[in-house]
Amino acid sequence: MSVATQTLANRWSGLRAWLARAWQPFRPVPLLGWLAAILIAVIIERAVGTPVARALGMSKVPALFGFIIMLKNPGLVFSALLYVLLIYLLPIALVTRLSVRAANQIAGKLIGYSVTLSSLAHLSVLYAALFLWSGESDYRQLVAKLAMIAIITTLSLNVVNGYMGEFSCSHPGFMALGAYGASVLTVTLFVDDNLLGQALLPPALGPFMFPITLIIGGAVAAVGALVVAIPSFRTRGDYLAIISLAFMFIVKSLFENLEVFGGPRGLANQPNYASLTTIFLWTIACIWVINNFVRSTMGKALNAVRDGEMAADAMTVNTRRTKMTAFLFAAFWAGVAGGLLAHVIRYINPDTFGIRKLAEVLAMVYLGGLNAVAGSIVGAVGFVVMSEALRPLEILKWIMIPVLLILLMIFRPTGLIAFKEFEPEKFLRPKVESNDQASSPPKTAGDRQQG
Amino acid sequence: MALLQVDNMTHYFGGLRAVHNYSLQIEPGELRGLIGPNGAGKTTIFNLITGRYTPTEGEIRLDGTSLIGLKPYEIASLGLGRTFQNLRLWRHMTVLEHVKMAHYSKLSYGLSGAFFSTQKRREQEQDTAEEALRLLKRVGADQHADQVVTNLPYGAQRRVELARALAIEPKVLFLDEPTAGMNPEELRQIMEIIRSIHADFGFAIFLIEHRMRFVMELCEIIQTLDFGEVIAEGTPDEIRNDERVIDAYLGKDIEI
C-alpha cells in the first residue's frame, strides 16, 4: 500500500518535472506572443483545416478541439488528436518560440507608450482570433457567445458570493428580469410581433438602441436586487441565501403568469442584435469595470465587510451602503447578461431561468475560484466548453460534470484560481529572458485560519 | 466641556445591568486607563461609546457632537479610533490595504471613480497608499506592507492594527488590551510605540489593560471598574493604594 502510493507520488513528481522542463522554452513568451500564435493557428485552420481533417478521415473540421468527435466515434481518437497537434499545438509552439524576441520588443514598446494602447492591441489580436475561430461554424459561434455571456454572469455572481462573502441564489432571477426587460423593449420597438404589436420605431435604429435596452434591462434587475437587499442586509448569515432563493422562484412564477409577455410559452422574435462583436465588447467592458471596482479601496471594503464587519465599521466603512452597492451592481451585470442571452437564443421562457441555471452559475463561480476575476473567466469558459464537449455523452454528461466538480472540491477546494488579484498590466508586460526570477508570490492565506 | 464627555451612561443587556451610571471626561492629549476584573464591563463601555451598542440611558459627546444614535462608521469618521482585543484584521488583505481601508470616509472619487478608474481615483489611491506607508513606517511595520496579514507574527499584526486605527486621524484613540498575548519583548516595543505616537500625534488615548505594570507606567489617570460601576478614579499611586480596588481584585478578607 505505502509502496504503491510512493511510486505514484514519484511518478507524479516525475511528470511534474517533465512538464516543467517542457515549459522552460516557453517561459519568456509574452502574452502578445501567445495571442499572435493562436491567431496564426486559427488562420492555418481556416486555410487548410478542411483538407487536413478529410485526410485524417474526419468528415469536417472538429468543432471543439476534437472532443466531440472523440466521444462520438472513439475510432477517430487518434485522428482528432493528430489534428489538434498539427493545426493548433505545433504552429502555436513554433510561432511562440520563433517570435519570442519580436513579441517581447513589440510588447515592450506598446506598454512603454501607454497601457490603454497596449490593452487595445492585445484585445484586437484576441478578437481577430476569436472571430476567425468562430467563423468556421455557427456552432462554434454559439459556444463562443455563450462562453462570453457566462463570463459576465459568473463574474457578477463572484462579486456577491466571493468578494462580499454572502451566498446569493437570485442570479437567474436577475438574468430573467434583464432578459425580459431588454426583450420586451426590442420586440415592442423594432419588431412586428403577434404578441407585442407593430414595431414602433424603424428597425434600422435597433442595433444602435440595443446597448440602451440592455442597460435598461440591467437597471430592472438592479431594482429587483433592491427588493432582496433591503430586508436581507439588515442581518448577516443565511438570510440572504433564503430570501434570494425565494426571489428567484417569485420572478420565475411572475413571468409564468404574465400573459402579456407570453406566460409559460415564453417570448420569441428577439431581433438578431447580439453579434459576436457586441457580446465581446460587453464582456470586455464588464471585466474592466468589475476589475476596477474590486481593486479600488471602495471595492476592497467588500472584503473588509466579509472578513470582519465590526472592524470595517470602526474604520469608517459604511458597511450597509457597501453591501447594497455591490449587490445592485452585480444584479445589473446579471441583467445585461440575461439581455444578451435572450438575443443570442432569440427565445426565452421562464423555465430558462430556474434552478438549473442557478446550479450552472454557482458551479462556474466555485469551479473558477472565489474572489478572483481571472478565476471567474477561467471557470466560465471552462465550464461552457466542458459541458459542450461532453454533450455526446448525453445523459452521462450530467453524471460526468458533477463528478468533475466533486473531484475539484477534493483536490482544489477553493477553485482553480482563488483570492488572486487580476492585474492586466502584469500580463501586458514583456518577459525578458534574463529576468529569471524563481520567486513564487507569497501564498495568500486562503487555507490558513487566523487564530 | 471635555473632548470626549460621557454622562451617566447606563446599559442593560435584557435584564442584566452591564454598565451603571458611568461617566468619563477625556481632555485633548490625555492618556487614561480603564482597568477592572474580568467581566467588569470594560469592553462593553468601549462598544457603547463607539456606537456598537446604543446605551439605555446617558449622553455621549465628542467635541460637542452627540454620538447617541450615530452609526459606528459615523462615529469613527468624527475622530474616534479604536483597536480590538482580539485583533480584528481582515485575513485576505495585505498590510497596506488594511491601512488604506481606514481612509475610506475620506475618499471622494465615488462610484464612477471605482468603476471606471478615473484620474481622480488613481491620484487618491496613490495619496492614500503613501499616507498609509508613512503610518506603517511610524509603527515599524512598513517592511510587511505587501504581505497578507495572516502571514505576520503576532506582534507585527498588533502594529498593523494600530496603524489602521491611526489612519482615521483620531482625536481620541481607544485601545482594547493592546498587549494581550504579547511576550515581554513585544510588550516593551508596543509601549514605546504608544508613547511615541501619543507624543507625536497629540491625540487622547483611552486604554483597557490587564497588565497592571503597563497601565501604571503609561497612564496619567486610571478608572477602575467593577460590576459595571466605577469604583475608583485617580492617579496610578492613588489606585494602587485604594481599598476598594484591592478588594475588587483580590476579594475581601483574605488571609495570607
Query: What's the number of helices of chain B?
Result: 10
Q: Which of globular, elongated, flat, extended, rod-shaped describes the shape of chain B? A: globular
Q: Termini distance of chain B?
A: 46 Å
Main sheet record of chain B: 6 strands, mixed
Query: Major sheet of chain A, described briefly?
Result: 2 strands, antiparallel
- Largest contact between chains: A-B, 35 and 47 residues
Order of helices and strands of chain B: EEEHEEHEHHHHEHEHEEHH
State the name of the first-level CATH class of the largest domain in chain B: Alpha Beta
What's the domain count of chain B?
2
- Count of distinct strands of chain B: 10
The domain count of chain A comes to 2
Task: Give the total of beta strands of chain A.
Answer: 2
From the 3D structure, determine the CATH topology of the largest domain in chain B: Rossmann fold
Any idea what the CATH superfamily of the largest domain in chain B is called?
A: P-loop containing nucleotide triphosphate hydrolases
Mean of all residue-level pLDDT scores of chain B: 92
What oligomeric state do the depicted chains represent?
heterodimer
Helix content of chain B: 25-40%
Question: If you had to describe this structure to a student in words, what would you say it looks like?
Answer:
Chain A is mainly alpha-helical and 451 residues long. Chain A folds into two domains: 87 residues, no CATH class; 292 residues, ABC transporter involved in vitamin B12 uptake, BtuC. Chain A is built from 18 helices and two strands. Chain A has a two-stranded antiparallel sheet. Chain A is globular. Chain B is of the alpha/beta class and 256 residues long. Chain B has two domains: 157 residues, P-loop containing nucleotide triphosphate hydrolases (Rossmann fold); 63 residues, no CATH class. Chain B contains ten helices and ten strands. In chain B, strands 6-7-8-3-9-10 form a six-stranded mixed sheet, with helices on both faces. A four-stranded antiparallel sheet of chain B has the order 2-1-4-5, covered by helices on one side. In chain B, helix 3 packs across helix 5, helix 3 runs parallel beside helix 6 and helix 5 packs across helix 6.
